[in-house]
Amino acid sequence: MRTFTPIIMKVFLEKDGKELDMNFTGKTVRDLLEQLNLNSQEVVVVKNGEIVLGDEPLDNSDDIKILSVISGG
Amino acid sequence: MLCKCGNKAVIETKEGPLCKQHFVDYFEKTVFDTFERFNLLSGVKKVAIAVSGGKDSTVTLYLTKKYVETKHLEIFIEALCIDEGIQGYREHTIKDLKRVCSELNVPLRIVSFKDAFGYTLDESLNKIQVKSCRLCGVFRRYLLNKYSKDYDIILTGHNIDDETQSLLMNIFNANVDLIARQGPITGVIKSEGFTPRAKPLFFCKEKEVFVYALIKNFNLTFVECPYASSSFRETARRFLNDLELEDFNIKYSFVNSFMKILPSLKSNALEGSVNSCEICGEPSSGNICRACFYKKQLDQ
């Protein structure tokens, strides 16, 4: 993974119901999921209220929510 | 990533990245094509939708109603919910379910494990040693069948992720007879005791169903079943989703291969006679059905 100067990023993980303050070392949604070890098939990322895909750039002013797609038993 | 129309894409599909509107069109066409390709509602007058208040069954309910209205079919639709009694999970989804059914003007019937068997799933798992998903599946299928006798067909919210996970699990467990029962229309035995079942979301990915539900603003509480992470299904899910990162079409390939061999699997499947359970009278392959077998253990 490419590394950039870390920024403090607030990320809300809906499944756990908690907000993370993380040192984000990437640049895009894809980097974020890789850093959090999340499979892109199992989550939807919402940036500032809009669903975004892997190539979407992120910065620390963004409101980021990660929603879990999985529900079954 | 942009949609073919130039708007920002919200999901990647087998047709490429799509914006909200093109994804909704693509998704609805996929489901409507499944209704037509497999004649799921041919000759049907009354349909029961197996619902939980989760995204898959809510989308199935919504799109079945939309399909029936679009095609001007005279079909009565009812929602049938089995409440397993899973604390911290089902009460949220049932609350959503009541609201959705009211908004869609579809009658809702709720049958609970507690009323039918005397125990919730949580209570049952504290009493006997059995895998959560196994017991839940036996009781749920039993009640769905028992309370849908007046209906021509039950539609369930199973998607391509569910189907490929089940395929993988049945292959690893050497359950060839169970594999023959899979597919968009469930079962190999036609019997008066069984209500036929079908899966309109058979060719839809779980993520697609989720995004469709989000776009449509069904306002559902997205909660994961607390027993999901302890199941073999969870392992199969992770395996398939990891493979999907390498090959985006892997689930379609898997299910399409399966569909090619399904007719021969069905014709070779044991057409064992259907008995009636000595205790409850419901269909059973043995003298006592699995639901009564577990109920007896619970009552001891």
Description:
The complex is a heterodimer of chains A (73) and B (300). Chain A is mainly beta and 73 residues long. Chain A has a single domain, classed as Ubiquitin-like (UB roll). Helices cover 10% and strands 37% of the residues of chain A. Chain A has one helix and five strands; from the N terminus they run E-E-H-E-E-E. In chain A, a hairpin with a 2-residue loop joins strand 3 and strand 4. Chain A is globular and about 35 Å long. Chain A starts with 6 loop residues before the first strand and ends in a 5-residue tail after the last strand. The model of chain A has no long low-confidence stretch (mean pLDDT 88). Chain B is α/β, with parallel strands linked by helices. Chain B has one domain: HUPs (Rossmann fold). Helix content of chain B is 49%, strand content 12%. The longest helix of chain B has 19 residues. The mean pLDDT of chain B is 92. Classes of the chains: A mainly beta (73), B alpha/beta (300). Chains A and B meet through strand 4 of A and helix 6, helix 9 and helix 10 of B.
Describe the protein's topology.
The complex is a heterodimer of chains A (73) and B (300).
Chain A: E1 7-13, E2 18-24, H1 29-35, E3 43-47, E4 50-52, E5 64-68
Parallel strand pairs in A: 1-5
Antiparallel strand pairs in A: 1-2, 3-4, 3-5
Chain B: E1 11-13, E2 16-18, H1 20-37, E3 46-51, H2 55-70, E4 76-83, H3 90-104, E5 108-112, H4 113-117, H5 121-127, H6 132-146, E6 153-155, H7 160-172, H8 176-180, E7 185-186, E8 197-198, H9 206-215, H10 232-246, H11 250-268, E9 275-276, E10 283-284, H12 290-299
Parallel strand pairs in B: 3-4, 3-6, 4-5, 6-8
Antiparallel strand pairs in B: 1-2, 7-8, 9-10
Helix pairs in contact in B: 1-9, 2-9, 7-10, 7-11
Radius of gyration of chain A: 12 Å
CATH class of chain A: Alpha Beta
Largest interface: A-B, 20 and 35 residues
- Mean pLDDT across every amino acid position of chain A: 88
**E-strand count of chain A:** 5
Percentage of helical residues of chain A?
Answer: under 10%
